[in-house]
Amino acid sequence: MTFFRYFPTKEAVVEHDDYDPLMADLVRARPPDEAPFTALRAALRTGLDTVLATDRDAVFARARLVITHPTLRARQWRNTTDTGSLLARALADREGRPVDLRLRVVAAAATAALVTALTAWVEEDGVRDLRDLVDEAFPALGT
């Protein structure tokens, strides 16, 4: 067995996580009549509660590595776009309709808020709770 059988590049070790599918499943589980931002915010909160309860240090170390390493930070853009697309699909599935521009924008904005909160978390050396930073970021979107 070789390293590259599991990961196509060294960077993929840091880029890959199982959190996006978890978040998408949590979005799909939200009530279909709930506003998309509300559904995303609630799903992200539940997911963060779950992940941070068991993996807080690993999540922080990974976020710090990505944010402080120029190559990884540049690749974060693609990953953020992929996450937004996954969340838009989850919102559409929840509502039983195709993905449209509105859902893509909502998911992209929510993903940007999450990434910005993660960046602040790292810049503040993890002193504040990431959930609090996410809770602070969402209203900045006008939600």
What does this structure look like?
The chain is mostly helical. It has one domain (17-141): Tetracycline Repressor, domain 2. Helices cover 77% and strands 0% of the residues. It contains seven helices and no strands. α3 packs antiparallel against α4 (36-68), α3 (19-28) packs parallel to α5 and α5 (70-95) crosses α6.
Give a quick summary of the entry.
Residues 35-141 form the MftR C-terminal domain. The chain has 143 residues and is mostly helical. The protein is built from 7 helices and no strands.
Radius of gyration: 15 Å
- The overall pLDDT average reads 86
Number of alpha- plus pi-helical segments: 7
The largest β sheet comes out as:
none
Strand tally is 0
The 3D shape can be described as: globular
CATH topology value = Tetracycline Repressor, domain 2
Q: Which features would summarize this protein structure in a list?
A:
143 residues, mainly alpha, Tetracycline Repressor, domain 2, 7 helices
